[in-house]
From TrEMBL:
Superkingdom of origin organism: Bacteria
One of the protein's GO biological processes: protein secretion
Function: Role in flagellar biosynthesis.
Protein name: Flagellar biosynthetic protein FliQ
Pfam family, one: Bac_export_3
Membrane topology: Multi-pass membrane protein
Gene transcribed to yield this protein: fliQ_1
Places the protein is found: Cell membrane; Bacterial flagellum basal body
NCBIfam families according to UniProt: fliQ
Species, as recorded: Stieleria marina
One GO cellular component, as annotated: bacterial-type flagellum basal body
Keyword terms: Bacterial flagellum, Cell membrane, Cell projection, Cilium, Flagellum, Membrane, Transmembrane, Transmembrane helix
Main location: membrane
Transmembrane spans: 12-38, 50-69
Length: 87
């Protein structure tokens, strides 16, 4: 494997990891902000009030995005195996 192929593979791996993690992180961020705003308005300062909705929303987002996430991971893996043997 050439150095440029390795660098391209590393770049593609990092971009794929960011794209795969982004939907879950965005859902966690949005739900966290909404719950924090709710806690500030009602002055409820309980840790589980922030934790449980975030976990549930991220689980729903994971189930909803799973087919797309799996296709992205399968495409990346297929590209790695196709390009691994090329000189």
């Amino acid at each position: 494997m050439d150095t440029t192929v390795v660098m391209d593979l590393c770049r593609t791996a990092l971009i794929s990891a960011i794209v795969i993690a982004a939907p879950l992180l965005v859902v966690g961020l949005v739900v966290g902000l909404v719950v924090s705003l709710f806690q500030a308005l009602t002055q409820i300062q309980d840790q589980t009030v922030a934790f449980v909705p975030k976990i549930l929303a991220m689980a729903v987002a994971l189930v909803a995005c799973m087919p797309w996430l799996m296709s992205r991971m399968v495409d990346f893996t297929r590209d790695v195996f196709e390009n691994a043997g090329m000189p």
